[in-house]
Design brief:
Blueprint lengths: L1 H14 L3 E6 L3 E8 L6 H6 L9 E5 L5 E2 L12 E3 L7 E2 L12 E3 L21 E3 L23 E3 L21 E3 L20 E3 L18 E3 L7 E3 L9 E3 L7 E3 L9 E3 L21 E3 L21 E3 L21 E3 L21 E3 L21 E3 L21 E3 L21 E3 L21 E3 L21 E3 L21 E3 L21 E3 L21 E3 L10 H7 L5 E3 L7 H10 L4 E2 L9 E2 L2 E2 L15 E2 L9 H42 L5 H6 L1
């Protein structure tokens, strides 16, 4: 009986109390956390809280309160912050929150509400934040009074619902509204208005179906987002002069006018529209504008002085248009510009002086155009430039001193062009350059001293060119180089000492070349190298001393060569931190591969992709022969899934059995010898009945 009572008490203690006090940084111990709550037990669970009147924050989680009832907060009237997110709420009884006269924040997002329940959010005098986002809400004319009496409401979130229509006076009584978010709905007509007392500072209407703007709707807002709608025209007069941020991207805008009236504008996004022409006075008086996004339009030409009055502009994005030629005066007065995006246009030529006034520019992106050659003065004034993107053009030649004045440059990208050879002075002034991208060109030769002055370089990418042989002084002075990419060239030989000065190198990629033999001293100076890729070459052998002094090597890729074996013991002795080897696609015998896999657990041999041919762990191998069994068969062995009747186990079993037999034979022989000695000793003692002398013992 006692045991039954104890069990009953234990079960009741574990079942009771789904609402518990927790300690939070914001409210301390005045936060109640309720889980697994439903419409039937919510009244009881909340009322069961000890001292419910002290509750400041109430959180419902992992609940299913489909119908939120009244009188839940009868004893918890001092709640300031209420969380009912993701609780499957689809209806709220009128007056459910009427007792919360102190509540400031109510969060009801990610539920199943299809209407804003009437009488739920009225007369909440302290309410400042109401989040009804991510429901299924739609609005009707009768909803005009749903926020009546909640005059202090500052932030209202109705985004990600099914709202198609907004009653014109819905927000009229909200005198202190600062943020209204109606984005990601189905609003078609924008004809609602706000209180004349204090208008929202931030209005989010992006991702709707709005075709035109009601010019009377905005009076003193500072942020308006109307992106991803169906607007065709933009009239600056429709927006308040106080506006600081206007987002109109992803519409069908083909005409803009009176934008110059927005004198406080700091951010303007007109990207991904149908704009083809911009009047040269369109941005007049916008001297506070910092960012102008015009990418993904149909602009073919920019008139001189188009940006003349944008004296504070820091970012100008003109990428993905149809620009062919830039007037020499188009960027006049942009002395504070930091980033200029001109990629993915049709620019064939840059006139001398095009960037003359951009003395503060840090990033210039001219990638994916049709540029072939630069005038020597093209970049003359760009002393502060840090990044220059010139990839995916048609550049076939660089004049000496093209980059002479770019003494602050840190990244230069010339990949995917048609370059074949560099003048020895091409990179002379780039002492601060950290990354040089030259991949996917037609470079077949590098003159000695080409990189001589790049003493800060950390990454050099020469992959996918036509290089065959390097002069021994090619990489001299690159003491800080960390990554060297030489893959997919035609390199057939590496001279001893070629990497002599690369004492900081950590990654060397030589994959996809024509290397057949490596001099034993070629990597001697690469003390800090941790990743070496020699895959897709024609190597027949890896000599034992090849990795001498490579103390920090961790990953080695020698897959897809002609190797027949690899001495892991030697590798590990030279490179104690080596933990990963890739060697699939070679001519290694299955027996040698098994040996490597079995007896070097400290080195991981990466699994290969071959499972339909003779392989072990997906690594193809040849001549799968078990001891004297001459039968050769296709075998697919997975080391991690070996079963007792599989080949590897058979090998281990045979080895173990042979060792056991040898040990047993030795033990038997030793035992027999010992028995013979003991028997002989007792026989002699019996027949002579005298103690054996030392000489006799010696004879035994």
């Amino acid at each position: 009986m006692k045991i039954f009572i104890f069990c009953l008490l234990f079960v009741s203690s574990t079942m009771a109390g789904n609402c518990k006090w927790i300690n939070t940084e914001k409210y301390g111990l005045d936060t109640a956390f309720c889980y697994n709550i439903d419409s039937d037990n919510i009244l009881q669970e909340v009322s069961n809280l000890s001292s419910p009147h002290t509750c400041k924050e109430l959180i419902f989680q992992e609940s299913s309160i489909k119908s939120f009832p009244r009188n839940v907060f009868t004893q918890s009237q001092n709640v300031i912050e209420l969380h009912i997110e993701n609780s499957k709420v689809n209806t709220i009884q009128p007056g459910a929150f009427s007792e919360l006269q102190q509540v400031r924040m109510i969060y009801l997002q990610f539920n199943s509400l299809d209407v804003v329940p009437r009488g739920c959010f009225t007369n909440l005098p302290e309410l400042k934040i109401l989040d009804l986002s991510n429901n299924n809400i739609h609005l009707v004319d009768d909803d005009v009074f749903i926020f009546e009496g909640s005059h202090k409401l500052e932030e209202l979130f109705l985004n990600n619902n099914n709202i198609e229509y907004v009653p014109s006076l819905l927000f009229h009584s909200l005198k202190h509204l600062q943020v209204i978010n109606l984005s990601f709905n189905n609003i078609k007509a924008f004809n609602f208005s706000f209180s004349n007392f204090n208008l929202p500072r931030k209005i989010h209407l992006n991702n709707n179906e709005i075709k035109e703007v009601n010019c009377k709707s905005f009076q003193s807002s500072i942020v308006i987002t109307l992106g991803n709608n169906f607007l065709e025209e933009v009239n600056g007069s429709c927006f308040p002069p106080s506006l600081e941020r206007l987002i109109l991207n992803n519409n069908t805008i083909n005409k803009i006018f009176d934008i110059e009236k927005l004198k406080n504008l700091r951010y303007l996004d007109l990207s991904n529209n149908n704009i083809s022409n911009i009047e040269n006075d369109e941005f007049n008086d916008l001297d506070k504008l910092l960012t102008l996004e015009l990418s993904k339009n149909k602009i073919k030409k920019l008139l001189p002085g188009t940006f003349k009055y944008l004296s504070s502009l820091e970012l100008l994005n003109l990428s993905e248009n149809s620009l062919e030629l830039l007037d020499v005066n188009v960027f006049t007065s942009l002395h504070k510009l930091l980033k200029l995006e001109l990629s993915k246009n049709k620019i064939k030529k840059l006139l001398p002086g095009t960037f003359k006034y951009l003395s503060s520019l840090e990033l210039l992106n001219l990638s994916e155009n049709s540029l072939e050659l630069f005038d020597i003065s093209t970049f003359t004034s760009l002393h502060k430039l840090l990044k220059l993107e010139l990839s995916k053009n048609k550049i076939n030649k660089l004049l000496p001193d093209t980059f002479k004045h770019l003494d602050s440059l840190e990244l230069l990208n010339l990949s995917e062009n048609s370059l074949e050879l560099f003048d020895i002075s091409t990179f002379t002034s780039l002492h601060k350059l950290l990354k040089l991208e030259l991949s996917k060109n037609k470079i077949n030769k590098l003159l000695p001293g080409t990189f001589k002055h790049l003493d800060s370089l950390e990454l050099l990418n020469l992959s996918e060119n036509s290089l065959e042989l390097f002069d021994i002084s090619t990489f001299t002075s690159l003491h800080k180089l960390l990554k060297l990419e030489l893959s997919k060239n035609k390199i057939n030989k590496l001279l001893p000492g070629i990497f002599k000065h690369l004492d900081s190198l950590q990654l060397l990629n030589l994959s996809g070349n024509s290397l057949k033999l490596l001099d034993i001293s070629v990597f001697t100076s690469l003390h800090k190298l941790n990743n070496l890729d020699l895959s897709y070459n024609q190597l027949d052998v890896i000599e034992d001393g090849l990795f001498h002094n490579m103390d920090f090597l961790q990953a080695l890729n020698v897959s897809f060569n002609n190797l027949q074996s690899l001495n892991l013991a030697s590798l590990k002795s030279y490179s104690p931190f080596l933990n990963l080897i890739e060697l699939t696609g070679n001519n290694i015998s299955c027996k040698a591969l098994l040996t490597m896999l079995l007896y070097k657990p400290s080195i991981t041999i990466a699994k290969g992709p071959y499972h339909n041919v003779t392989n072990i762990n997906g690594i193809s191998c040849i001549n799968f022969v078990l001891f004297n069994n001459s039968t050769q068969a296709t075998c697919n062995v997975n080391i991690s899934e070996i079963k007792p009747d599989e080949n590897l186990t058979q090998i281990i079993a045979k080895i173990s059995e042979n060792v056991r037999i040898i040990i047993i034979i030795i033990v038997i022989i030793c035992g027999l010898l010992l028995i013979i000695i003991i028997v002989k000793y007792y026989l002699l003692k019996k027949y002579h009945s005298l103690p054996l002398s030392q000489p006799e013992l010696h004879l035994l």
